Amino acid sequence: IYCMPLKGIRTKQFYPYPEFRTMGDLDILYKEDQTKKLKQVMQDAGYKFGGYNIKHDEYEKDGVTIEMHRDVLFRLTNAYDYFADIWERAIHAKGKQYIYEMSLEDHYLHSVCHLAEHFVRGGIGIRMVLDIYILSETPRMDKAYVQRQLKALKLQKFEENIRSLARAFGISTPVLLGLVLLLGGMIAFFV
User: Fold this and answer.
1) pTM above the 0.90 mark?
2) What is the pLDDT at residue 78?
């Protein structure tokens, strides 16, 4: 099955300490024409089908939820067309035959677009804001390319505001980041 890790699975590698980036589920993009094969592979691996959604199927096993995405974004979003050909732009993950990755720039743009979807449809959490901050501080990212794409997607000001929000939290050091994530996780646990 050709697949591409999305969101937290990929983002956590950019954190100073990957274990600071908690995840509620695993998000993986797959090629929709492999749906039948995917269902069989997941069933053979002991995963129970948990439901169908407009963007993804859910599978569960031992308290772990995997969302297998057919699309990276809702079809009605401004950025859907940008990501429609993501498989053509994706690169093989190092040493992997069937696993692909978005470029760092596309991963960042997807993270911003995904956050914008949540913002419009119901709200965002501190973890999503921190993800944007952490990714935006990655030195090897082509920031000029990202800014051009954000402008074309009409998300430039939104992304600036999210980064400003992260800075307002005082996020600038790995230790402080860890404390914020720890407290955020504790608050989520007790709510």
Assistant:
1) no
2) 81
